[in-house]
Amino acid sequence: MRFRLTPRETSFYDMFSASADNIVTGSKLLMELLGADASARAEIAERMRAAEHAGDDATHAIFHQLNSSFITPFDREDIYNLASSLDDIMDFMEEAVDLVVLYNIEELPKGVEQQIEVLARAAELTAEAMPSLRTMDNLTEYWIEVNRLENQADQIHRKLLAHLFNGKYDAIEVLKLKQIVDVLEEAADAFEHVANTVETIAVKES
C-alpha cells in the first residue's frame, strides 16, 4: 500500500459496511419470500421497502461525506461507484419482491430459489469484505468468488428462461415471471460491479 502523508477520512469504511450489512438484510427477506404464502408476502415487501429506504439513506450519507471531505481514503470516483453499485443491489432486490406482490404471483418457477441462494451468498461475502477496505488485505478471494457466483447466476438465469418458454406458462405469465428473474439477474450483476470496483481500488492502493 502506498505511503500517505495526509490524514484520511475513515468514516467511509463504516458507511460501506453498514450499506453491505443492509444488503444482507435484504437477501434474508428474499429468502423469506420463497417460503411465504401470498398473504404473508405483502408484509415482507413492506419490510423490504423499509430496508431499501435504509439503503438509500446510507448511500446519501456516503455522497454527503464525499462532497464535504477534503481528503478521502481512495479515489472519489471509486467511492461514488462503490456506493452506487451497493445501492443498485438493494434496489433490484426490492424491485423483485415488489413485482411478486404486484403481479400476485402464486408460485415462483423452480430455479428462482437458486438465484436467491446465489444472491444471499454474494451478500454475505460483500458484507465480510467491506471492513477489509481499511487495510486492503485478503480481498482477492472475495472478488474471485463473487465473479464465480455471477457466472453461476448467469447459468441459472438461462435455465430459468428456457423453462419459462417451454410452453407450460401462458404468455402473460411468462412476461411477469421473466421480469422477476431478469431483475434478480441484475442484482447478481450489481454484486459483480461491487467486486470489480473493490478490485480496482485494491490495485490502485497497492
From TrEMBL:
InterPro entries registered for this protein in UniProt: PhoU-like_sf (IPR038078), Put_Phosphate_transp_reg (IPR018445), UPF0111_domain (IPR052912)
Domain of life: Bacteria
Gene3D superfamilies: Phosphate transport system protein phou homolog 2, domain 2
One Pfam entry name: PhoU_div
Family: Belongs to the UPF0111 family.
Name recorded for this polypeptide: DUF47 family protein
Gene source species: Streptomyces siamensis
